[in-house]
Amino acid sequence: AATEARPHDERIALRYGVALHGKDPHSSAPVDAMMPHVQRATKWMGAEIVDARLLAAFAFLAASRGDSAPGLTDLVFKALSLGMEQTGTRGGAVAAVYKASLSGEVPFDLCQRIYNLERDLLFMPSHCHRRLELGTILRRLTQLPQAVSAGQHMLLLLSFDCPHLAETLSGMGMHWLEETDMKRKTVGLGGDLHSRADIRQSIRDASYAILDGKLARGESAEGTFYHHQAMVASRAVQKRAQGQPRQ
Questions:
Q1: 76: exposed, middle or buried (Cβ count in 10 Å: 0-12, 13-18, 19+)
Q2: What number is the average pLDDT over the span 143-156?
Q3: Is residue 177 classed as helix, strand or coil in its secondary structure?
Q4: What is the pLDDT of residues 89-117, one digit of tens each?
Q5: What does the buried/exposed string (b/e) look like for 211-235 if buried means 16 or more CB atoms within 10 Å of the residue's CB?
Q6: How confident is the model at residue 247 (pLDDT cuts 50, 70, 90)?
Q7: CA 198 – CA 196 distance, rounded (Å)
Q8: pLDDT > 70: what percent of the chain?
Q9: Between 98 and 39, the higher pLDDT residue
Q10: Which residues contact residue 89 at a Cβ distance below 8 angstroms, ignoring those fewer than 6 apart?
Q11: What is the distance between the alpha carbons of residues 168 and 171, in angstroms, rounded to a whole number?
Q12: What are the angstrom distances between the C-alpha of 129 and each of 40, 42, 112, 188, 206?
């Protein structure tokens, strides 16, 4: 009903297509549900922007079905190319990963895992363990800078999105070696020092943000592990740089 009432809504089409695939992975209905939006995007090759997540999901489902419909292979490549152009977005990074898999640079099993995580986050966007798993996977794809950037961005926000999980991962333990895998019910960083550094940076950023907020409200921030006077001085320098009068 929602797709009929709002036929131009990309988010509804994406959720509907992904849901249909979950119901019947062998059906062509998921691809058909997203097809109008992909055709709209590829008709003018970027003149009209369509969400990269939809373009990537369409391409993955169409390619994994092995459908040989006329023009579909070309449409898959065009969808991924347009998706990749949306740099700085997770959808664009995922499109880059899927396109790399078509030339054998990324294993299909890894693409399937990424698709499954994106599917879960589409309906459960605040699921911390899945956010961590996807972030660490993308962070390790060093041959694809777009993927690394997207994964790093997710991990740098982990303390804001999932503070308790970030705090747990920052301390030493087996979670530094274990890999996050929802199928095996394990949570960790898989030995990735870059991911650990990103999460620790996230904790520092969150701590500074909290302390800065207290200072802005005139609350006492003494007793924190950051030097109170250093933060006061930092705020004074920031005010001067913005041209605010001295008080």
A1: buried
A2: 96
A3: coil
A4: 999 999 999 999 999 999 999 999 999 99
A5: bbebbeeeeebeeeeeeeeebeebe
A6: very low
A7: 5
A8: 81
A9: 98
A10: 52, 150
A11: 6
A12: 35, 35, 17, 9, 19
List 230's β-bridge partners, or say none: none
Q: What is the DSSP letter of 24?
A: -
Rounded Cα distance between 110 and 84, Å, is 18
Q: How far apart are CA 171 and CA 167, in angstroms?
A: 7
For residue 122, the model assigns a pLDDT of 94
Cα 236 to Cα 227: distance, rounded to the nearest angstrom:
15
DSSP class of residue 104 equals T
Distance CA 14, CA 10 (A): 6
Mean pLDDT of 201-217: 81
Given a contact cutoff of 8 angstroms between Cβ atoms, the answer to whether 84 and 128 are in contact is: no
Residue 193, both tokens: 């020092």
Of all residues in the chain, the percent with pLDDT exceeding 90 is 47
Report which secondary-structure segment, H or E, holds 138. helix 128-139
